Amino acid sequence: IALAHDLANGFDTGRIHPWFQPQISTDTGELTGVEALARWNHPHHGLLTPGDFLPTIEASNAICRLTDTMIDQSLDALATWDQQGCTVPLVSVNFSLTDLRDPALPDRVAWLLDRHEIGAERLGVEVLETVLHHGTDQQVPNNLKALKAMGCLIDLDDFGTGNASITNIRRFSADRIKIDRAFVRDIDTDRDQQGMVAAILTMCEQLGLETLAEGIETPGEYAMVSQLGCGHVQGFGIGRPMEREALPGWLEKLQ
Ligand code: G
Ligand code: G
Ligand code: NA
Ligand code: MN
Fold first, then answer.
1. Confidence bin at 37 (pLDDT 50/70/90)
2. Pairing mode, if any, of strands 16-25 and 210-213?
3. 38 lines ligand 1 (CB under 6 A)
4. Phi, psi angles (nearest 5°) of residue 167
5. What's the 188 CA to ligand 4 centre distance in angstroms?
6. CA–centroid distance for 67 within its chain
7. DSSP code at position 126
8. CATH class in words for 4-254
9. 158: left (phi over 0), alpha (psi -120 to 50) or beta
10. Is 16 close to ligand 1, i.e. is its CB under 6 Å away?
């Protein structure tokens, strides 16, 4: 499907917008944050996911517009949830390499936080582990350092799939590691999976990093990563990505 011609309309009408997937603490069972995931409610093609439209957005040089839209709408959702007495401590947005190479990135983020009067500590910056390989110039680490200094939480996404070195974790100011769901699958019965996740968790503990396991689908997987000491979990078994209007109801059921 040819989407490039519809892109401007998708942004202008708000049809390109975030859905939110819950993240909870294995300690308390409480909501600790949500990940913002892009969706396009297309008038002809129906609900599209990033796999359908990210290539078009990249080819159209619109990736920074997507990121700014995702941050803007996510902070707007936070403000609305606050007014409804629905406490969401953190919203994490996916940033691309293009964003991280933009010298104006800290200003873009600061401006949006100001506009919504939301503290930087409530915005998570999700960066793919693979992005870090391209950060040969100083701009990428400098931007992450600046965002961290503002108070944002830096999340290293899909950890374990992209040859990340421990040096990179330090150099890129990571606060939390998101353990890729490839390591979580069947972890309650698979000893190899348990060994790898235990090793990652030990490393994170030694480095003072927080941890989140992605792709939790079953109670058995939840129980095992919790027992191994992982701090946070996210996955279909906890909650599926949902529209902003659905989150307060979901949270009520959690409590
Ligand atoms: O939501 P879904 O599982 O379809 O997401 C597929 C992929 O798209 C995930 O790897 C996710 O990180 C990525 N993604 C989702 N939303 C965004 C976004 O707003 N910006 C970027 N750059 N990637 C996103
Ligand atoms: O790469 P990233 O971690 O951002 O990918 C997030 C994507 O993973 C989202 O598109 C989301 O729909 C998907 N996802 C979230 N939880 C699960 C899960 O439990 N199982 C599977 N298979 N996919 C998931
Ligand atoms: Na992500
Ligand atoms: Mn991930």
1. very high
2. unpaired
3. yes
4. -55, -45
5. 20
6. 12
7. E
8. alpha beta
9. left
10. no
In Å, what is the CA distance from 65 to each residue of 16, 48, 54, 111, 229? 11, 18, 12, 14, 38
Give the model's pLDDT for residue 102: 95
Burial class (CB in 10 A: 0-12, 13-18, 19+), 36: buried
Distance between CA atoms of residues 2 and 91, nearest Å = 31
State the distance from the centre of ligand 1 to the C-alpha of 98, rounded, in angstroms: 15
* Range 70-87 burial, b when 16+ CB lie within 10 A, else e: bbbbbbbbbeebeeeebe
The domain segmentation of the chain, as residue ranges, is: 4-254
Q: Which letter does DSSP use for residue 210 in this model? A: E
Residues with Cβ within 8 Å of residue 246, at least 6 apart in sequence: none
Ligand 2, atom 20: nearest CA belongs to which residue? Answer: 215
Q: How far apart are CA 188 and CA 185, in angstroms?
A: 8
Measured CA to CA, the distance from residue 135 to residue 105 in angstroms comes to 15
Whether the CB of 21 sits within 6 Å of ligand 1: no
Does the beta carbon of 66 lie inside 6 Å of ligand 1?
yes
Residue with tokens 């490039």: 4
| Measured distance CA(152)–CA(172) in Å, rounded | 13
Which residues form ligand 2's pocket by a CB distance below 6 Å? 21, 37, 94, 157-158, 181, 214-217, 235-236, 241
The verdict on the CB of residue 50 being under 6 Å from ligand 1 is yes
152-162, pLDDT tens digit by residue?
999 999 888 87
- Quick one: average pLDDT of 181-201? 96
- ipTM of this predicted complex? 0.96
